[in-house]
Amino acid sequence: MNSSLFDLSHATAPPPDIAEALSATAARRGAFGSPLIYAPSLASTNDIASRLADAGAAEGTTVVADAQTAGRGRLGRTWFSPEGAGLYVSVVVRPYDAGGWKPRSVSADTPPLPAVLTLVAGVALAEAIREATGLAAEIKWPNDLMCGRRKLAGILAEASGQGPRLDYVVLGLGINVRAVSFPPEMAARATSIEGELGRHVDRGLVLAGALAHLATARARLRRGEIGAMLARWRELSPTAVGSPVEWRRAEGLCRGTTAGLDTDGALLVDAAGVVERVVAGEIIWR
Length: 286
Ligand code: BTN
Description:
Blueprint: H1 16-24, H2 26-29, E1 36-42, H3 45-54, E2 62-68, E3 86-93, H4 113-133, E4 138-140, E5 144-147, E6 150-160, E7 168-176, H5 193-197, H6 203-222, H7 226-236, E8 241-249, E9 252-261, E10 267-271, E11 274-278, E12 283-285
Parallel strand pairs: 1-2
Antiparallel strand pairs: 2-3, 3-7, 4-5, 5-6, 6-7, 8-9, 8-12, 9-10, 10-11
Helix pairs in contact: 1-6, 4-6, 4-7
The structure holds biotin.
The site of biotin has 20 residues, from α3, β3, β6 and β7.
């Protein structure tokens, strides 16, 4: 990896809370978080991780910032990323590396790799938040982390290449940690771990736990344990069944009731007795 190609002049050693948690979890994290590039502020950690991956950075390379000036969310949205509010993390995953999961081992009804990674990243982050803080984070399809109807964290998976030519996926995690004032347009839909718990939490433990759970998920993908991982996704996403929702299609707004996760990662929705598959976009609770 040639870091001199990029403007990493702001990179510093991670702050003590992050450094301590990383050091305590080194054995569980494997390659995830090694190397870890930390900067107090970056435009978007996903951009830096992608540029590092383009230059050959290994799986597990992680970029962490305390603030982002151009944080991106799904569906072209911006991600609220001021200093002192959350953790902004991007991790390089190379699904088809040597010893990785080969395309020919994938059966017809196995979800495409980026879809699997998106779902299992949500599971990893939910497990990490639960273990590190005790907050019972749940998943809203596909991978929003929720407390009730408010969003705690989001994941932006950005792939380079597709199918057997998939080169890497950058998993970008935005985690609302501290109880801050959200902008008015977000206030009804967003929350934070500390806001929910009413006490201080150790963000280093959340970060280190997420990296450790991603390492475990990666090992399980190699072993082909997709069914078991999607079963855990279903447990952590009770709203994937029986919730009244709306979603947007080219033809307009559709309404229905969630009916579970399909084998390929699509959300099933019962619309007046016809089961529809939602493969992308956003589900809005009614
Ligand atoms: C979502 O819309 O729910 C996904 C939000 C993902 C935000 C994270 S913050 C770290 C990484 N860098 C970005 O610019 N976006 C992701």
